[in-house]
Design brief:
The complex is a heterodimer of chains A (340) and B (387). Helices cover 37% and strands 16% of the residues of chain A. Chain A has 340 residues and is an alpha/beta fold. Chain A has 2 domains: 211 residues, Periplasmic binding protein-like II (D-Maltodextrin-Binding Protein, domain 2); 95 residues, 3-Layer(aba) Sandwich (D-Maltodextrin-Binding Protein, domain 2), CATH 3.40.190.10. Chain B folds into 3 domains: 38 residues; 241 residues, MetI-like fold; 68 residues. Helices cover 68% and strands 7% of the residues of chain B. Chain B is globular, with a radius of gyration of 28 Å. Classes of the chains: A alpha/beta (340), B alpha+beta (387). The interface between A and B is large, with 52 and 46 residues.
């Protein structure tokens, strides 16, 4: 009996003994694989394809970091997390990056000791209803049953939106997107609310997407982006600049198709040369990356536009317009610091 | 040397030495665990703090037994969740006990069909995991019952829909005090009459129909008061307004599914416990009771069950505890119990995993220990008194 207790306690002890002192980059290189925490399943962002391979916008970002650090975009182990478990998993070291449509908020950044390295997708919380309900505006939802995916900022936005408009509602909290869909389809709720991107993703997986609509009101700001643990600035910089390199790729006209030829010649735009390693980019060795890091990212994964269009754009079932998620010169919010 | 070897050879002192050693090992290990948690928290830049309990929770809860809105604190949200856990546990325990005892007795019935039906019910139910029961019941309710706009209408006062069950809610008006007063009088009378009848029977053997007399008094007296004071109770009838029914009393599909699943699942175990308890009573007891001319129902009530109770209560306690702990699976269908509020949304909003989990664990522990203490007290009351 006593040995049993000791064994149980020892197992518990091992669970807690997770922290390590070596740098994150060294860990990843030593392992030869990047551990990436993604969604349990959200079409367009992280979902397994028919061969069981993870694909999607968030998955491609994991691949980009693997390409930058290991030179091979396929060297990624994926760990899934629900809205509730994601920060715990990141803190416990189950992954080096949390790339799971996570909203950047003050308390998550500061109080939970995590680092948000940038915004990969500007989103906002919306409402989806069946067209048959006859509701045209979220202001007409007084008294409705609302399915919410728990463990997100969604609950707070929802409470504030309904209270702010003097309306009542009946919250139905659900753990994962898949279960929430089932309840919404069965008519347990009148409305399903989550980030608008998630609504489009969910709708695209329905048998009759045309029977449902997303209401025009967007009730919150949801800047989504990758998260890393606090305390390793080198790693945070690597992840941040991987994202920026993808956006710079779009800005400079570098695509997965032309990156090899651009990298091989002396370009007129010296920024292309610096990004692709033709001209020296000061400090890249401090980051611990090789000169061809951006070539690997764009060549193996693509620039931001390619990744967006492949996973979320008009040619996909999700049909999400670029909207705010464009470069500033096209009317969006992405303004990349100069690569010099 | 000889003293030390004496201590070691002496059985009693050796036992004590070994126990001290084991205790030290466990203590050292626990302190190592705690310091490890502490060190890792420091490395992550986190601290242990319970201040989050007093900041506004910010989220809404769809079922609350005490007043709650999203400006209340995380602590209050946790209490609301705890009361929801308590509610489903009480409903579940009542259903499981009634169903379990009936099934246990039916299982022993001489009627072949009744006994077999109970047998298959028990074998099927207790061999399917509880989570599947919960999902099944929830699925049945939300997929087979109609939308509120086409709700099943029972006499224009009760409605069944996939958003839950709606029944009229009694509202009290002026003059209700008289009804309460008469109810209290009726209860006092019933208790006194019960004692009187028992004494009378002990002395003379004359039996009064105690149950029927008390039952009538308990119903009739308040009813008379109700009419005298001008019917001071009105019913609030649920009505479809907008998307859902408003007014009346509402039982959500999640609460209903959990109650059914927990009650029906645990009933199967209770049935087996009851059966074991009844079989543990020597068959001579039954024969003796029958030989003095008691009716079968009296044999069961007066002779068998009181003796079986001693065997039944300890395992029954553990079933009640299981049911209460299993109610934490509520999270699978979105019932807002303690785990879903304090251990779920509050955890996520504040990021205090360690603190919320420790609180939730301590609460479950104290709830379980309270049930256990109550059942132990009851067990002591009914156990065989040695003379």
């Amino acid at each position: 009996m006593k040995t049993k207790i000791l064994l149980a306690a020892a197992t518990a002890g091992v669970m807690f003994a997770g922290s390590v002192l070596a740098s994150t980059l060294d860990d990843v290189r030593a392992r030869g694989k990047l551990n990436c925490i993604i969604n349990t399943g959200l079409a367009g962002f992280a979902a397994p394809d028919d061969k069981g391979k993870w694909t999607g916008f968030d998955v491609d970002f994991c691949r980009a970091v693997a390409a930058a650090t290991l030179g091979d975009a396929d060297k990624v182990n994926y760990t899934t997390a629900t809205g509730k478990t994601r920060f715990t998993k990141l803190a416990a070291g189950e992954g080096e990056i949390l790339s799971r449509n996570t909203t950047w908020t003050f308390s998550r950044d500061v109080d939970l000791s995590q680092t948000f390295v940038g915004v990969s997708y500007y989103d906002g919380q919306g409402f989806m209803v069946p067209k048959a309900l006859g509701v045209k505006s979220a202001k007409g939802l007084d008294g409705a049953s609302v399915c919410i995916q728990t463990g997100t900022t969604t609950e707070l936005n929802l409470a504030e939106f309904f209270a702010g408009n003097g309306m009542k509602y009946n919250p139905v909290p659900i753990e994962t997107n898949a279960e929430a869909q089932e309840l919404y389809k069965a008519g347990r709720c009148d409305v399903y609310t989550t980030d608008a991107s998630g609504l489009y993703a969910t709708m695209s997986s329905f048998d009759n997407p045309a029977d449902h609509m997303v209401l025009p009101e967007i009730v919150s700001k949801e800047p989504l982006g990758p998260v890393v643990r606090h305390g390793d600035d080198q790693w945070a910089d690597i992840v941040a600049w991987t994202l920026k390199a993808m956006m710079a790729g779009e800005e400079l006209g570098i695509t997965s198709a032309n990156v090899k030829s651009l990298a091989g010649k002396d370009n007129k735009n010296k920024e292309i040369n610096r990004l692709l390693g033709k001209d020296p980019l000061q400090g890249i060795s401090k980051l611990g990356l090789s000169a061809d890091w951006a070539v690997n990212i764009i060549g193996q994964v693509g620039n931001y536009e390619e990744v967006f269009e492949k996973n979320l754009g008009m040619s996909t079932p999700l049909k999400i317009a670029r909207g705010m998620n464009q470069l500033y010169r096209d009317g969006g919010l992405f303004y990349i610091p100069p690569i010099k | 040397m000889s003293f030390l070897s004496y201590i070691w050879r002496n059985e009693k002192s050796r036992e004590i030495i070994v126990q001290i050693f084991v205790l030290l090992c466990i203590g050292w290990f626990l302190s190592w665990l705690i310091s490890n948690v502490d060190a890792n928290f420091k490395a992550l830049g986190k601290d242990i703090s319970f201040e989050f309990l007093f900041i506004p929770a910010g989220y809404d809860i769809n079922q609350y037994l005490i007043d709650y809105n999203n400006r209340d604190s995380h602590l209050r949200a946790g209490i609301v969740g705890l009361l929801n856990t308590g509610l489903v546990a009480v409903f579940g325990i009542i259903l499981a006990t009634v169903l379990g005892i009936s099934l246990g007795i039916i299982r022993l019935s001489k009627n072949w069909l009744a006994s077999k039906i109970a047998y298959w019910y028990i074998e099927f139910t207790r061999n399917v995991p509880i989570l599947l029961h919960i999902l099944l019941w929830h699925g049945i309710i939300i997929n087979t019952l109609p939308h509120p706009r086409k709700a099943l209408n029972l006499g224009d006062v009760t409605f069944l829909s996939n958003r839950g069950f709606y029944i009229p809610k009694p509202l009290t008006e002026n003059g209700i005090e008289l009804v309460y007063l008469f109810l209290v009088i009726a209860i006092i009378f019933s208790v006194l009459f019960f004692k009187y009848a028992k004494k009378k029977q002990d002395l003379t053997g004359i039996q009064y129909p105690v149950f029927w007399i008390n039952f009538s008094v308990l119903i009739l007296l308040p009813l008379i008061a109700f009419f005298i004071s001008g019917m001071p109770i009105s019913l609030e009838i649920p009505a479809l307004k907008g998307f859902n029914f408003r007014g009346g009393m509402h039982m959500s599909p999640e609460l209903a599914a959990l109650t059914f699943a927990l009650g029906i699942y645990t009933a199967a175990f209770i049935a087996e416990i009851v059966r074991a308890g009844i079989l543990a009573v020597d068959k001579g007891q039954r024969e003796a009771a029958e030989s003095i001319g008691l009716k079968p129902s009296k044999v069961m009530k007066l002779v068998i069950l009181p003796q079986a109770r001693r065997v039944i209560i300890p395992p029954l306690t553990s079933q009640y505890l299981n049911l209460t702990k299993n109610s934490s699976l509520a999270i699978a269908i979105g019932y807002m119990d303690l785990v879903a509020t304090l251990g779920g949304i509050s955890l996520n909003q504040t990021g205090r995993e360690m603190e919320t989990m420790v609180i939730v664990m301590l609460i479950y522990l104290s709830v379980s220990l309270s049930i256990s203490a109550f059942m132990n007290w009851y067990n002591n009351k009914v156990k065989l008194v040695g003379r």
